[in-house]
Specification:
heterodimer, A: mainly alpha, 3-stranded antiparallel β-sheet, two-stranded antiparallel ribbon, 6 helices, 47% helix, elongated, B: 588 residues, mainly alpha, two-stranded antiparallel sheet, 61% helix, 5% strand, globular
Chain lengths: 190, 588
């Protein structure tokens, strides 16, 4: 037993160095050389300023922008406090929140069914995407606010719609931050 | 449910099937200490490790010494983890200047990661420094998985050996599991994940200027409403990919970020999602082949694989259909909503199919990583992950723990078959006798004792039990039940609404995790030691064959019957009752 105890001590030290220090440092060096943009968080810079990450959602509330999904991360899209609402299916707060958000969405957008993802929070609270249906639902409002034609907005949505990966993996989706940045680029609000 | 959703699920299972034989055969070679293509690189590292630590690789251990070495090693690594958490504020690689972790939380976390549970009662972004994540949490992801694989191999040796007193050398098995099985694939997998978008850096958190600054109203504790303009977004960074890959491959599940694999930095694309799910199942599936190969009965390995695959498909069908059907309360409360299934707590890039699939995969095994929030699943959709854990996580199962878990059920199955025909049961040429069955029953009984016991105490204790609940009604019972079910099964996923960072939950959940891991393992190693000593009995007409569909069917039945007898009453008061109330339009 004493022998195994001494081995335990040395084994803990040796494997901590190998697995806890050498391994992550090797991965970091290789990652920084091979994929520097991804390894540093896929950040987007505009005029020399970081305006976000293409993987991390942001809140939008001005009517001229496409809205992201509701978020339960901190005060909304808090990227150092990720998480979901964890409201259960029979929780009254969930039902009240959803029906309130649905009414608000209907009031702000021309009447048509509200896409489910626009009234539900994501698991991370940082979902960068909305469904293509949720983008199409908001297109008339955004077009009107910006004085663009709906066709132009729809073209932009199509440009930022990612299909299923390899043709069958996951779901089609629209990156909200990239779409809104592109909107600002081609047709800025005054 | 969509055809594309089903296609993704079946595609996933086919890839698991394709991986089983090559990975299983590779593991057989590694643990039989035969030559592999990685030897030129790894053999020198292995020898160096033995020289530094004083391991004599030529000696073997009996089951008691094997268990003892495993316990001492786990204890030492646990202590170091606790220590580093407590002094992380004095150590490097802490760019956010996070303070030391509180004692009860540090203990809970050290136990959680040592036992391969990876239950997280904390928000990693604001609790753990990069150094703590790397040297204790990601470290345990390797070690606890390596220990699990070593234990499984020791049990398989016990079955395969004849009239031997030893079952292998713990240090050699653990070292080889880490160096040959885990480390090489993690290096490649981590880079694959970085390519898909997972960060890998040591930078302080990034600050982004919001494109559309937000005005938020918050109500303080004093009831006053304050208006606040948020112009920036602080985005957590860190060495994520190196931890993410072993978190899945070692079926650990402890997220680098609070939202775990739902976080776009941990799991950015559907392709990263597929890879992560495959990593979760890979070792469990491969070990069924190793079992068959090492015991000289490959068809037995496949019969076990089939039982696992059938239980997996049943679970995924139930969870997928419940989530795709959605929550009727949501759809009726808001007029003109496009029904799209239950999207609360789910990410767009994964959708319903991949969220339901992941929930099943992570609880079939002892992984516990989540890519959607199980607490917000429909009652029946959330019941499936709970049942998977209650059945003992033997459906492919945790790294190593899945295999020794199902061997317990196999022993019970041949025992029951033996009772039916009135003969001494045999398993792969070994007589299964009273001692073996007693030990098997012990592991089956310890788990519900802790799970149901602590759940019962918590639900009648308003001050320290119920005060942590986020949801009322039957869902509240499910939250507490889930917490102890995952702790005992060393899963680590959660109905995360429960505030578990309290003295009561931190200590009782830690206790449950410790017993769930080590009191499972000791009886299992005792079985291994007992079987290794036995003589080989040749197969006869009275032997119940363990390679047939009949065996697969019996094994499935035993797993389901044991689970149902123990847990059906609790399930009926939690998720089943909630399902009925939800359909009746009741909210809490």
């Amino acid at each position: 037993m004493k022998k195994n105890f001494m081995i335990s001590i040395w084994m803990t030290i040796a494997t901590t160095i190998l697995l806890g220090v050498v391994y992550p440092f090797v991965v970091t060096v290789l990652a920084q050389v091979l994929f520097p943009s991804q390894a540093n968080g896929s950040l987007i810079t505009l005029n020399g300023k970081v305006v976000g990450s293409r993987l991390i959602g942001q809140p939008f509330s001005s009517p001229g922008y496409f809205r992201s999904r509701p978020s339960a991360a901190g005060n909304g899209y808090d990227a150092q406090n990720s998480g979901g609402s964890n409201l259960g299916p029979t929780n009254k707060s969930l039902i009240d929140r959803v029906s309130g958000d649905a009414q608000k969405a209907q009031a702000e957008n021309p009447a048509s069914p509200v896409p489910m993802d626009l009234i539900t929070t994501s698991g991370s609270g940082l979902d960068p995407h909305i469904s293509p249906a949720a983008a199409a639902f908001q297109a008339p409002r955004v077009a009107k606010e910006r004085g663009m034609t709906e066709a132009d907005v729809t073209t932009l949505i199509a440009k930022h719609t990612e299909p299923r990966q390899l043709g069958f993996l996951g779901e089609p989706r629209v990156n909200v931050l990239e779409l809104n940045l592109d909107l600002d680029a081609v047709h800025p609000m005054h | 449910m969509t055809n594309n959703g089903w296609f993704q699920i079946l595609f996933f299972l086919l890839v698991v099937l394709a991986l089983t034989k090559p990975l299983g055969a590779f593991m057989t070679r590694v643990f039989n200490r035969e030559k592999t293509f990685l030897d030129p690189v790894l053999r020198p590292i292995e020898k160096l490790l033995y020289r530094l630590t004083g391991v004599d690789e030529a000696t073997e251990m009996g089951w008691k010494e094997y268990a003892g070495a495993m316990l001492i090693f786990s204890g030492v690594t646990l202590a170091l983890t606790y220590l580093i958490e407590r002094v992380q504020n004095h150590l490097p690689l802490n760019p956010q200047h996070l303070p030391a972790v509180a004692p009860d939380l540090a203990f809970n976390t050290a136990v959680s990661f040592t036992t391969n549970t990876n239950w997280q009662a904390y928000v990693p972004e604001t609790t753990m420094s990069y150094l703590t994540q790397m040297t204790t949490l990601a470290y345990h992801n390797f070690i606890s998985a390596g220990v699990g694989i070593a234990l499984a191999i020791a049990v398989v040796r016990g079955i395969a050996r004849r009239e031997k007193d030893t079952i292998g050398n713990f240090w050699v098995d653990m070292t080889r599991a880490v160096l040959w099985v885990l480390l090489p694939l993690c290096l490649v997998g981590a880079l694959f994940l970085v390519w898909q978008g997972v960060p890998q850096n040591f930078k302080p958190y990034a600050t982004a200027q919001l494109v559309d600054p937000q005005t938020v109203q918050t109500t303080g504790a004093d009831g006053k409403t304050t208006t606040q303009v948020i112009k920036e977004q602080t985005i957590a960074q860190g060495p994520t990919a190196s931890q993410e890959v072993i978190k899945e491959f070692g079926t650990n599940g402890g997220g680098f970020f609070n939202a775990n694999s739902a976080h776009p930095y941990e799991n950015p694309t559907p392709l990263s999602n597929l890879l992560e799910m495959l990593l979760i199942f890979a070792i469990g599936a491969g070990l069924t082949y190793t079992l068959g190969q090492m015991t000289g009965s490959p068809r037995h390995g496949w019969a076990v694989w089939c039982a696992m695959a059938i239980l997996f498909l049943v679970g995924v069908t139930a969870a997928y259909s419940a989530e795709a059907r959605g929550n009727p309360l949501v759809e009726t409360s808001a007029n003109h909503v496009q029904p799209a299934g239950n999207m609360e707590g789910k990410e767009i890039r994964f959708g319903i199919a991949n969220s339901a699939l992941w929930a099943v995969v992570t609880t079939d095994t002892s992984c516990g990583a989540v890519n959607s929030m199980h607490d917000s699943f429909t009652p029946l959709g959330g019941m499936i992950p709970l049942i998977n854990m209650l059945l003992g996580e033997v459906i492919f199962g945790g790294a190593g723990s899945g295999l020794y878990g199902i061997i317990v059920f196999i022993i019970l199955s041949v025992f029951i078959a033996g009772l039916m025909v009135g003969r001494t049961p045999e398993y792969l040429g070994k007589k299964v006798e009273a001692f073996d069955v007693k030990m098997a029953m012990l592991t089956v009984l310890i788990y519900p004792l802790f799970v149901l016991g602590f759940t019962a105490i918590s639900v009648v204790a308003p001050k320290f039990g119920l005060s942590s609940l986020a949801n009322a009604g039957p869902h509240g019972l499910s939250e507490i039940f889930y917490a102890y079910a995952e702790a005992g099964a060393n899963n680590g996923s959660a109905f995360a609404g429960l505030n578990a960072n309290t003295l009561w939950y931190n200590t009782t959940i830690a206790t449950t995790m410790l017993f769930g891991r080590f009191f499972m393992v000791i009886p299992v190693l005792a079985i291994a030691g007992s079987l290794a000593r036995k003589k080989h009995v040749p197969e006869s007409a009275g032997t119940f064959p363990v390679t047939t569909p009949l065996f697969t069917g019996l094994l499935i039945s035993v797993i389901l019957i044991v689970g149902a007898l123990t847990f059906f009453p609790a399930l009926s008061l939690g998720p089943i009752l909630e399902h009925l109330l939800m359909n009746a339009g009741k909210t809490f």
